[in-house]
Design brief:
heterodimer; A: alpha/beta; B: 321 residues; Glutathione S-transferase Yfyf (Class Pi), Chain A, domain 2; 4-stranded parallel β-sheet; 8 strands
Amino acid sequence: MSTAPSSSKSQERIGVYVCHCGSNIAGLVDVKDVAQWAGRELAEDGVVIARDYQFMCSNLGQELIEADIKEQGLTRVVVAACSPHLHEATFRTACQRAGLNPYLCEMVSIREQVSWVHTDRDLATAKAKALIAGGVERVAWHEPLEPLIVPINPTTLVVGGGIAGIQAALEIADSGYPVILVEREPSIGGHMAQFDKTFPTLDCAACILTPKMVAVGSHPNITLLTYSEVERVDGYVGSFLVTIRKKARYVNAETCTGCGLCIEKCPVRVVDEVFEAGLGYRKAVYRSFPQAVPKYPVIDTEHCTYFQRGKCKACQIFCPTQPKSINFEQKDEIIQVEVGNIILATGYELFDCRRIPQYGYGRLANVYTSLEFERLCNAAGPTGGEVVLRDGVTKPKTVGIIHCVGSRDSKYNSYCSVICCMQSLKFAHLVKERTGAEVYNFYIDMRTPFKDYDEFYQKVLAEGVHFVRGRVAEVTDAARHPGEEGKIIVQVEDTLIGRQRRIPVDMVILSAALEPRRDAQEVAHKFGIACSANGWFIEKHPKLDPVATMTEGIFIAGCAQGPKDIPATVAQGAAAAARVIGRIHQGHLALEPVRASVIAERCSGCRICNNLCPFNAISFREDLGVTEINPALCQGCGTCVAACPAGAITGTQFSNEQVFAQIEGLLMLDFSGAPRGAAVRMLEPALS
Amino acid sequence: MKYGYYPGCSLERNAIAYHESAMAVAPLLGIEFVEVEDWNCCGATEYMSVHMLPAYALIGRNLALAAQHQLNGKPRLVAPCSACFLNLAKTDKYMAEDPRLARLVNEALAAGGLHYKPGSVQVRHLLHIIVEDVGYEAVAAKVVKPLYNLRVAPYYGCLIVRPTLQQPFDNPEYPTSLDRLLRVLGAKVVDFPVKTHCCGGHMTQISEETALELIRRLLKNAADYGADMIVTLCPMCQLNLDGYQEQVNRRFGTDYRIPVLYFTQLMGLAFGLPPEILGFGKEFVDAGPALAKIGAEPPPPEKKERPPKEALPMPAMPAER
């Protein structure tokens, strides 16, 4: 390779450290041989010392490096161990302690990329050598770097006013920092406000949620922006500039007392598809529910007679305040806020059960979705908590509850929606309690982990609820026999007795899947984060960093990250808040200096890179005719570096010299006595 | 639009009404059929379970013959019979997925100097091409005598919407394309939850008891929904529901008189074609009384009964695509 470097390398004094990682690496790679080989064969490339050690990440392992830096005068360090995701920070810090710039340390992954993925000892050992050679060639070209220090604005934006967002906002506000909470709907509360009871304790959802809603509404540190949506996010961690659209409510919050007379007098009644899940009605001027926070109603212009036909104004006429609080002239308002961190808690959407037509939802009156049933049970719901059929009066004598509707089904969502088993048990209990009906649960597997959940399952079993294991084939009103007339029949293979069964019931409840918000992709893009294949926001690490994202300063909480129940949602809300509070306390943040930068003289202003950046870090300077990269926003992914046709973009830590040197090391090394180039052939089976 | 045409044996005998009506409406829709020369039996539903390889070879021969038709572009082969359609489509798919099967079938075909390359013929059912290639709008444009006041139960049977086929053209569990086509013709389509359930197939010959019960369920459901007739797209379904209706009545003490017609016959009527060329009169259960219901005037819009105050709203169904 002609571009490969030839000079400078032997001037460095390089130390190579090969980790055993117990048997994780040493079990397959001959680490001793690797270390000895590196000390011998890479000496002319600058390696002055090469050691193997059982656990390089241990204190003793780190001290080994520190001592060598001081005593041997090392100028570069290569650690061959696990993935840099895990211990890069450890070894960089060790170098720093010994007075070496931390960015002069290079990690080579011989665990994730070698011992864990191969089976042949000789080939794995050879591959480890090659990777280390690449690391040694590369590290010679490293430059000392300083981290970027950015100040953290103490204000936090929380997007989504469900229980996750409420919890996060309160935690941060209670610790004394300002929060801006943005909610799309007219009131905070989210899905939890729609529920009647919560499993497994059966405490009333409103009773435990509304105190928190009231606290949000009256908290001196929380600015509540309901009926608002984030339009745009600029800036970067520590200093985001967020543009928010406050949709016109047509109700003046300064003068409105929330008396509700306008709602009473409004002549238009429409089906409430959001809060009542389509099961109840609301007026054209409405408040989602009695305990709504804030208390001010909104006018739904799509159904308002005045907005549609230019007359009516009943709400305004009857408004008792002076001046009138109804203002038909109100316009959407665009505001901009500066925040240091953002927590996304945008929740979930219920699976549309009409996508499974054989379950009859939308065709058969007495097939309900889980959310409809929540409203049906709710004392503040359309029936005042009476569990009745769609006619509004008849109590069901038999009820079927179908689990996993749209979940664990390769045709819709392959994942488990987590809450459905417990929710269905809760429904079974409530139906029994309110109507005394016979209840059948149709399940695939019962999943009741976590505190007190299985006890609840046992309790519902003891109440005499029937459980039929099998995925329901269809729900139909096509009666075959006189006993089925007038009923809806659940056809299912009972896999425990190995028989087809037809169970006639009066009401069916579909425990529908939780799905990502329909606009989750769009929102993710707006905030510079990513969605999984299923559409949920992706966390930085599924186990060890569940509320952070790959974008600094953006955190996620609740069902936006994946289906979860209320306790887990609240825990994530609080966890995200804790992360943010920690950041604010520090006052500033050190960012990785792995950044792309534009060499202005080479940039032709073609803008090819402008739309590629997943982190919105690239902007075009109209005045100069060149592209610019915001170093605080750039995450160093390298997309633009690869895309630039003029080679005008370069990445620190990923310069052409560094990458070519690494390739040179990987491919052109002469080891085990074989002629140069033999290594490539020898490695082919292992690599293929 | 030119298509290869594979009538299969039914269309020449018991389902001649299907053949005649299909031939009558096709020119009005701009469809031209070219019958596959020297076609043979598709093996129906049984042969596959008796001996797989000869069954596939039997069908492979038809595909090979159809592939020889040089129509514009990839040869498109239409089968009006659901069993023929499924066998042709299935064999094409399995040969494409399983090179060993393709080799064995082609070894057999070589004896007759034929060869079939999987995927070289596009196999379609008659309903597919009418709703997809012709389209609902074009059909609507040909309607001169709408079937107002006629209540019809759309019956798809179990074969044409199988989910494993290359591209199921409709929802396998609850198809609606025939519903929509019949609505376009002006008929009132009733919900027919058993629309994809089994008609009994050849069980009439093996276990009459089983078959009659299956047929009874279909007739009962159509009667429960007040359908004037059942509309089908499969000769087997038509034969079982029509020909065995009397036996069902005798066995179960019922009195069903539900005519079972092909959708192409209704298309012909709506297009104003004379009933004589549409194969009417060949059905066992007389369609006369039901057809007499067809009104010249559109029915008055159904009065939306105001639901009682306490009733809960029904979920809105999405508008038809």
